[in-house]
Structure formats: structure tokens, C-alpha cells
Amino acid sequence: MKIADPLGTPGAPQNTWQAMQRRLDEADQKQADPQRARLILVTDRQGDRLHAGYAALVTLGHGEGETAVLSAPAFGPRYGEAGQQALTELVRWAEQAGLATRETVLSSGDYQRVLAEPDAQEVAALIAASNPADPAIYTTPLPRNEDDWG
Questions:
Q1: Which helix (H) or strand (E) holds 68?
Q2: Which of 12, 57, 98, 140 has its Cβ near the most Cβ atoms within 10 Å?
Q3: What CATH number corresponds to the domain at position 37?
Q4: How far is CA 55 from the centre of its chain?
Q5: What global pTM score does this model have?
Q6: pLDDT tens column, 139-148
């Protein structure tokens, strides 16, 4: 598996999403196998979507030609409205491209370490630990307080 350094800037949603878009646009579309390509959202929070932050891992190809495109942590509500907007755009892009959406939750220490210096073994473990996720949980606005529930 080919793994480059994470794209984008931690905490900078639009910069990171634009870097991901450029890299994914450059990817050989023949390399994208819809049965194997996937978007994996990596977070260090479970059950707290209102404050979650995500890095993105997109896998393309298979076998020795498989490529992992990893982002810096910059998506989701932890990074404000821009972070939520970038997350929504990323997930919608993946849906339109036919990629499966998955999620992996890591401990805070592992999250920082894997995203700072990803290696093939850790990325493979991250992929294996991922679970299917409904794209709507990332694209549907969440109420900010109980008054908004009604």
C-alpha cells in the first residue's frame, strides 16, 4: 500500500478539503475500484458527534497498487461551521463517487501518532478496524441543544 504524508493543515477545514480534492482529482480513475474504494473517517471521539473532529482516509486500488490518501484532522464540528461544511462536502463527494463510508475510532494518543507519521501496518490496522457508517450521520445537521429537538 502506498501512503503519502497527510494532506492539508490540522484544524484548517477548507485548506485540507481543497488539498484532498486536488489529490483525488489527480488519482487515476481507473485505479478506483468501486467494490474496494472507501472513505474512512478517523476520529478520537465516540458517541459525541456535536464535538467530533475527523481526519479522512480514502483508499483507491487494490493489492500492491492500493493507495491510501490521508488528510490532516480538519473535518467535523470540532473545527466550527467550516469543519462541518467540509465534512458534509467530503461525504457527499464520496457518495457521488460510489465509495463506501466507514468510521474508525482511535484513542487520542493513537489518533495523534497515526496521523502524524502513518505507516502501512498502522493504516492497514485502521482500515481493518473500520465499521460501516451511514453517510447521513455526517451530512444531517445536529440540534445544538434540547430546545432545538422539537
A1: strand 67-70
A2: 57
A3: 3.40.1530.10
A4: 5
A5: 0.89
A6: 987 666 656 5
